[in-house]
Automatic annotation (TrEMBL):
It catalyses: tRNA(Pro) + L-proline + ATP = L-prolyl-tRNA(Pro) + AMP + diphosphate. This is Proline--tRNA ligase. PROSITE patterns: AA_TRNA_LIGASE_II. Transmembrane segments: none annotated.
Amino acid sequence: MRQSILFTKTIKESPKDEKSVNARLLVRAGFVDKLMAGVYSFLPLGFLVLKKIENIIREEMNSIGGQEILMPTLQPRANWMTTGRWEKMDDLFKVKDASRKDFALGATHEEVIVPLVKKFVSSYNDLPLYVYQIQNKFRMELRAKSGLLRGKEFMMKDLYSFHLTEKDLDGYYEKVKAAYIKIFKRVGIWKKTHLTFASGGSFSKYSQEFQTISDGGEDIIFVCKNCNQAINREIFDEVKICPNCRRKDFNEEKAIEVGNIFKLMNKYSKPFDLFVLDEKGRKKEVVMGTYGIGLGRIMGTVVEVCHDEKGIIWPEEIAPFHFHLIQAGQGSKTEKIARRIYDDLQKSGFAVLYDDRKGKSLGEKLVDADLIGVPVRVLLSDRTLNANSAEVKLRSKKETELIRLPALNKFLVSRKLYV
Ligand code: ATP
Ligand code: MG
């Protein structure tokens, strides 16, 4: 993409109404725009990152047998009455139509998926079944001060699994756990992420959270100094001892819950009377699991974890572009060479942000490049061209390297660059 046609611009000053690191950097660099507290537009750069995260999640969900669907946001009150959550769920958005009829805006989708599955599933042969979607959720979050970490409208991947037996659910729960670890590795935050025991006593065996250690986090977790097992605050207050190694020595850390996995058992199959007939024709209640990941929250978390004083440092797999090609000076020779590098890299299958803007100094372009955070910067200036070279720099490192033009494309596309 040519930067001269990108309609968004970087912003020098931190927006006054943003406190969190992720929102300040993402707004300044032109990835997102705040419409109101907890509600953001994804601009071209941000949309590219969001789609990369989405595709990683989709690949990993498909690899564990997930079937993708898309369910509606607008939902009938009756379904939420059936589960009791019309009254009980504090953060449920409720809207009325012109005839004063009530609807919920989906905060989660058990109320839609269970009756949907009931229409198609009636025999034990139909199980197990794994269905997921990637879709916007609405929640009346009161403390929407953390940028993309806590939206009132936010993108979530929600997977629901349906099983004949608890044992089968247990097996699938472990598969989802492994898929989640792959996702957090690929988006670049696994090293700081702990699989954490969640919510209360014996219930903890039914639910785990993925918590990424970060000062921007709203949660507190306790990480065992001996075995690295993490526990969230609720359960810690109850047990005060590592459930894994029985030691009592913990580090207290701020963390962001980036995902969670939950055995629902019959919590929602019961109210909707979702059952199948087993091989002997007996009625058996279906047991379920639910597994969520917030896409915007991942994007915000990556920024919280991967940045420096100059801007964002995107992990390779979710970066908006592979290369940021910067053309300094307007000489026709420089431009010709820059365009050739741009075309060659794209032909080799790489995404390039090409800073071809006129009327911007080299200094301004470099400041923007650091803010935007593309992993590899390729600079063409009079100085480098005098040496028939381009200067290559990783966003994450200080050193620069001059590479001679005839060898540039080969050098850039070789994977060696990233290690
Ligand atoms: P929290 O305790 O942070 O409010 P939650 O327990 O309500 O999270 P779930 O309902 O389990 O979260 O949602 C699944 C995932 O969706 C979370 O792990 C998180 O990644 C994401 N998520 C939840 N609420 C938000 C939100 N308001 N904004 C962005 N992402 C969210
Ligand atoms: Mg919540």
